[in-house]
Specification:
Order of helices and strands: HHEHHHHHHHHHEHHHHHHHHEHEHEHEH
Radius of gyration: 26 Å
Distance between the termini: 35 Å
Oligomer: single chain
Helix content: 55-70%
Number of domains: 2
Number of strands: 6
Strand content: under 5%
Structural class: mainly alpha
Length: 544
């Protein structure tokens, strides 16, 4: 790599790291307050985890810190242990060790088998929890420790609301929801709301609850003290936290793979996060995971290496040292407004938009996971959702199982495919999606479509008559987008009109160019051959 390219990469990392830091600041402060760790622990946790996990993790920039699901689990543990901070810190330490142990097994690869409705139900539940939990702080009242208590007290305490806090909170909501999305890449709406509303609060001398204190000194290192009894007592909390920390990081890794087309090593990603969270525990700061929103923002701004994570941490250090006085004046109602926006962003609107088209089995799973997440337990919710999805799939497969005597190939088609392979040297390829295309195989199939070097026309044949579930539909959309990004013209052969109608309803067919859908494989092959010959002739005459 020459000097010019190195400078371009460095500039991208710096801009990406700065953008991620601006997004991280209000979120880390808000989650720090919401979990009971405090604003200082939130921001220092983001600094420590981002730099440690960033340097030890993957080559692709991974911006880490507390996220919505992690904050909910930490807050619930704090509540269960009556805000015994030393015990919670030991649980974080133990969770980090468990993450490292998990990284030595094959379990990190299991996350890709989690059905989409389970993930959607979980994320929707977490988003709703965050919104409900912030309603009291938005009104200038004391926060509640769980969703049920929040719902019970919100109507009782609304008569004693702090009008000034409520007004500044509503202004925060207007800014974060009303700020044009196209400007967000220049200045995130959350940081804008934080600055504007805090300045108004200071200038008008509003009587509202504030952060009040922020520590600018590096947290001291303290080894957690524990006994065998504590280890046995708190192990299940540590397992719950480790699972959420790991799942959130691995899902962020999958998103990064989709964007960058670079396969990330899940075991290294997980071990780096585990070491980072151990460091957070040793310094008494808030744990976290790889954060999807911040990482994607960094990558889309130009970040390409792990140096971006270092830039994010360094920027946060500078911000709290230079503006600690300002940070202390931030109203808690403003943080509540920011968290409500974060909760809304976590909700899976992509799935909700097509929920009326989703199969009933997917809806059963989503609703079960959502309700258990909001009103019971996050880990139980995910486990119950995976179990239900597996049982429903097993039932569908059992209902359709039967013996059929059928010719398994067509001689004319096989002959044509062999001619294509010989004469066109993979400029034209025919790929059959064989076997069951469902949530278990969707991610597997995606990885097989990553590289088709030299291909110009790819004929994708879906032989089955089975309708696709929601995971397979989104996976097929991802496959088509990836192939198009490699400048491959896609032709699709669908033997069943019901499948075609389903893809049209979800607007998947709109991703394929005109004359791209066929019922006959032979017709698709002939069209590809004809188009390829025209393309070659055009190029030949142009060069001559």
């Amino acid at each position: 790599m020459d000097l010019k390219n190195k400078l371009q990469v460095l500039a991208g990392d710096i801009l990406g790291g700065l953008n991620a830091a601006i997004i991280t600041l209000p979120q880390a402060l808000a989650f720090g307050v919401a979990t009971g760790f405090g604003a200082s622990a939130g921001i220092w946790g983001a600094i420590i985890l981002s730099v440690v996990a960033g340097l030890l993790g993957t080559k692709i920039p991974m911006i880490s810190g507390v996220t919505g699901p992690v904050a909910i689990v930490v807050a619930s543990i704090m509540h269960a242990l009556n805000k015994d901070l030393s015990s919670v810190i030991f649980i974080v330490f133990l969770a980090g060790i468990l993450q490292i142990i998990l990284s030595l097994t094959k379990l990190p690869e299991v996350v890709k088998y989690v059905p989409y409705p389970v993930i959607s139900g979980f994320m929707n539940g977490v988003g709703v929890i965050i919104i409900i939990m912030q309603l009291n702080p938005l009104l200038g009242l004391e926060p509640c420790s769980n969703t049920i208590e929040s719902l019970e007290t919100i109507f009782k305490s609304i008569s004693s609301l702090n009008v000034e806090a409520f007004v500044i909170g509503v202004l925060t909501l207007l800014i974060v929801f009303g700020f044009p999305k196209r400007w967000n890449k220049y200045i995130p709406s959350q940081i804008l709301a934080l600055i504007i509303c805090t300045i108004i609060s200071i200038k008008m001398g509003l009587n509202v609850s504030k952060i009040s204190q922020i520590s600018v000194s590096m947290p001291a290192i303290n080894m957690p003290h524990t006994t065998l009894h504590d280890l046995i007592t708190y192990l299940h909390y540590a397992v719950m936290l480790a699972v959420i920390l790991s799942a959130e990081s691995l899902l962020t890794g999958l998103v990064c793979t989709s964007i960058t087309k670079v396969q990330l090593p899940p075991k290294r990603l997980l071990s780096a996060q585990g070491i980072g969270n151990i460091c957070c525990a040793l310094t008494g700061t808030l744990p976290g995971s790889a954060a999807t929103m911040r990482t994607v923002a960094a990558i889309k701004t130009g970040a390409a290496t792990r140096f971006a994570a270092v830039v994010t941490s360094a920027t946060l250090v500078i911000l709290i040292y230079k503006f600690s006085g300002f940070v202390a004046e931030i109203p808690l109602a403003v943080l509540a407004g920011i968290l409500i926006k974060i909760g809304y962003d976590i909700i899976d609107t992509k799935f909700l938009k097509v929920i009326n088209l989703a199969p009933k089995d997917d809806l059963y799973v989503l609703v079960l996971v959502f309700l258990l997440t909001v009103f019971y337990n996050l880990i139980v919710a995910v486990g119950a959702g995976i179990t239900l999805a597996a049982l429903l799939y097993a039932k569908r497969a059992a209902d359709k199982a039967k013996l059929v005597n059928k010719e398994v190939y067509d001689k004319e088609i096989m002959k044509l495919e062999k001619v294509l392979e010989k004469d066109y040297r993979h400029k034209i390829r025919v790929v059959h999606i064989s076997g069951a295309f469902f949530f278990g195989s969707a991610t597997q199939l995606i990885s097989q479509f990553d590289e088709f070097l030299g291909t110009r026309y790819l004929i994708l044949v879906y032989d089955s008559d089975d309708l696709l579930d929601i995971s397979a539909i989104f996976a097929l959309e991802d496959i088509i987008l990836r192939l198009k990004s490699q400048h491959i013209k896609i032709l699709m052969v669908i033997n069943n009109e019901n499948v075609l109608e389903q893809l049209q309803q979800y607007k998947i067919t709109e991703q394929i160019e005109e004359k791209g859908i066929y019922f006959s494989e032979i017709d698709a092959i002939e069209f590809a051959k004809s188009s390829f010959k025209k393309r070659v002739k055009k190029k030949y005459f142009k060069n001559s």
